[in-house]
Design a protein that fits this description.
Layout: E1 2-10, E2 16-25, H1 28-32, H2 42-50, H3 53-59, H4 68-71, H5 83-96, H6 101-111
């Protein structure tokens, strides 16, 4: 029912310089129903926008319009957010955090 998000900050050398923990109430209604102009599963949108043709084929991915939950609000992009670049940034952050390329692949396979 509750979740914790750990926001870890790194310096330009990749060293951890701080962290902050937030606690959230998980709202299952927000997973299946989005408000106007709202998206869910942000990392999935990033993945859909940023993965290459090989990754798309391996994971059997389509556009966000194809999936019930990502198509519900009809919001595929957020003004000022480049989902393709966010995917690159997400993978870079995972690497900086010590997550191997293989572990990243497994994580994205699970997400897909």
């Amino acid at each position: 029912r509750f979740a914790k998000l750990i926001n870890v900050q790194f310096d330009e050398n990749g060293y951890m310089v701080g962290a902050h923990v937030d606690q959230y109430l998980l709202e299952t209604s927000r997973v299946v129903v989005q408000a106007k102009k709202e998206r869910n599963f942000h990392a999935f949108y990033y993945m859909l926008a940023g993965c290459d043709k090989t990754e798309r084929a391996v994971w059997g991915l389509y556009s966000a319009r194809h999936y019930k939950y990502t198509n519900a609000s009809r919001v595929y992009e957020i003004p000022g957010v480049n989902s393709k670049l966010e995917y690159v940034a997400l993978k870079r952050a995972m690497t900086t955090g010590g997550i191997s390329v293989h572990e990243q692949h497994l994580t994205f396979t699970l997400l897909a």
